[in-house]
Amino acid sequence: MILTLLAVLLVGSPDSTLRVVDKAGAPMIGVRVVREWQTSEEKEGKADAITDKNGEARFPRVETSISALKKTLKPLLAYVPASCGPSSEIYGMTTFRVYTTKRFTQRFDEKIWKRDNEVWVRSDGLCIRAPEVIRKYDPTESYQELYFFNITSAFDFTLILYEEEPNQSSQPATGS
Question: Which of 18, 49, 100, 167 has its CB surrounded by the most CB atoms within 10 Å?
Answer without folding.
Answer: 18
